[in-house]
């Protein structure tokens, strides 16, 4: 998603996304670098920045709802186990 946004913003997507992934990897592997997990892209300036300091916060509730709705949709699809099939006689009538 970050790559698509950077490309659409006409920025150097490869460099920006590589830096962002490096920050996130460091945040996940080193306990003293947890603050790097809030890094994100500033596509106006074309830089990687700390989103918390910039005031950009993604609400967890919206992500939870997205996951919940996707799960419910998958369950609904999996529940449909009947196939609707026309008899050979009915196919010619329509």
TrEMBL record:
What is the protein named?
Uncharacterized protein
> What are the alphabetically sorted keywords of the record?
ATP-binding, Chaperone, Nucleotide-binding
Q: Which organism is it from?
A: Kingdonia uniflora
**Record GO terms (molecular function):** ATP binding; ATP-dependent protein folding chaperone
Q: Which domain of life is it from?
A: Eukaryota
Q: Which PANTHER family match?
A: CHAPERONIN
Q: What is the lineage of its organism?
A: Eukaryota, Viridiplantae, Streptophyta, Embryophyta, Tracheophyta
């Amino acid at each position: 998603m970050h790559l698509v946004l950077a490309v659409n913003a006409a920025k150097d997507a490869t460099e920006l996304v590589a830096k962002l992934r490096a920050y996130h990897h460091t945040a996940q592997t080193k306990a003293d670098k947890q603050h790097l997990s809030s890094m994100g892209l500033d596509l106006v300036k074309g830089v990687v920045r700390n989103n918390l300091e910039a005031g950009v916060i993604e609400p967890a509730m919206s992500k939870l709802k997205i996951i919940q709705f996707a799960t419910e949709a998958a369950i609904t699809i999996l529940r449909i186990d009947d196939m609707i099939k026309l008899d050979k006689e009915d196919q010619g009538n329509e």
